[in-house]
Amino acid sequence: ISDAAHDEHAPAGHVPGEHSSAGHVRIFDTSLRDGEQSPGCSMTAPQKLRFAHALADLGVDVIEVGFPASSEAEVEATRRIVREVRGSTLAALARCHTGDIQASARALEGAEDARMHVFLSTSPLHREHKLGLNKEQVIERAVMGVEMARRYLDDVEFSAEDALRTEPEFLVEVCSAAIAAGATTLNIPDTVGYTTPAEIRSLFEYLRVNVRDAKRAVFSAHCHNDLGLAVANSLAAIEGGARQVECTINGIGERAGNCALEELVMALNVRRSYFNATTRIDTRRLVPTSRLLSRITGMRVQRNKAIVGQNAFAHESGIHQHGMLKHRGTYEIMRPQDVGWEQSQMVMGRHSGRAALIDRLQTLGLMVDDTRLNDVFEAFKVLAEKKREVFDADLETLVLGTDAPL
Ligand code: KIV
Ligand code: ZN
């Protein structure tokens, strides 16, 4: 939607993506499920409803609204969202258990556009220590879950939990069986944030070639951030053929979180000609949506967080401020307005130089002649050594205070 593509900044002769026809990548937001279930992020039903509206307005393709089997309150919250929110597919999570699937079906009843999301662990560690099932039993249970979900809805997603630590050949068998049972989306979660970009890309390529009837399903990535690689891994999965990415606003989620929606979307947007992929996200709503989530949960984002952090478009050093005043492209690869900020911020502090001071004084209508400017600049430097940030009001006092005639 936004015209924030800045691939014009790529060096001449840069290598475009080989995956030249990624096309549309679905954005599946799980802030209200994977995000909400993490410490410090729980929400009440009215808060969930409010945030679901914001996600629909943002242009998210699929909103995972919750895990209805976890409580009656979760069923009720899901029902309220189903009654009110339009414009996105609404998904509910269930284990491959009869009771879970029935709870999701009850919660989603009457939805205009709904998806049942069933999941089951597939890795050796989870098979042995969590499920106590052998490979055949895992396949049987996955098929049972998908078939049962299909009795309620046509849109069924199957997730192979801990897929990135599953034997690839076995993953092929599970995915093939899930497609045969009626799954329309196959999600390959990196549940514990263990993989690397090259590895996940190869896995997606391998699955697309080896899974039977792979073309009948959309492959999806769901990356956790335990090694700080969730966004990089999700982008690599797209290069490997994923056409849905599961993510959360501000990257909230279990432990170190999930792939951050705003970072993934802006990487696709800014490097559009590299990835050749588009999303439906209205990028100008990224900052307001991030802020709404922080207000609801009380969990603030770090200042230097990409895209939505307070410092994401702030410049303090003299060299950078000088460059920015000449051409914003020197130190910014996207426009702040394209992600919902009003403007870039020139922070006046001890690293700022003369050019930035002049610009600020002009903006504030406080410009002085050249001789006085030297004094004001000296006074500004002295003040900046004492304060972390020199605010407009400080500059006003400084200029007016040293202006003898006034
Ligand atoms: O991380 C994970 O494996 C999950 C699944 C339930 C999709 O959140
Ligand atoms: Zn997860």
Note down, in words, how this protein is organized:
The protein is of the alpha/beta class and 406 residues long. 44% of the residues lie in helices and 13% in strands. It has 16 helices and 12 strands. An 8-stranded parallel barrel has the order 2-3-4-5-6-7-8-9, surrounded by 7 helices. It has a two-stranded parallel sheet with strand order 1-10. Helix 15 packs across helix 16. The site of 3-methyl-2-oxobutanoic acid has 9 residues, from strand 6 and strand 7. Belongs to the aconitase/IPM isomerase family. LeuC type 1 subfamily. Keywords: 4Fe-4S, Acyltransferase, Amino-acid biosynthesis, Branched-chain amino acid biosynthesis, Cytoplasm, Iron, Iron-sulfur, Leucine biosynthesis, Lyase, Manganese, Metal-binding, Transferase. Heterodimer of LeuC and LeuD. Homodimer.
Describe the structure in brief:
The protein has 16 helices and twelve strands. The chain has helices at 31-35, 45-58, 72-84, 98-108, 124-131, 135-152, 168-181, 197-210, 230-239, 261-270, 272-275, 286-297, 318-326, 354-363, 370-386, 392-402; strands at 23-24, 26-29, 62-66, 89-95, 114-121, 156-161, 185-190, 218-223, 244-247, 277-278, 314-315, 345-346. β4, α4 and β5 form a beta-alpha-beta unit.
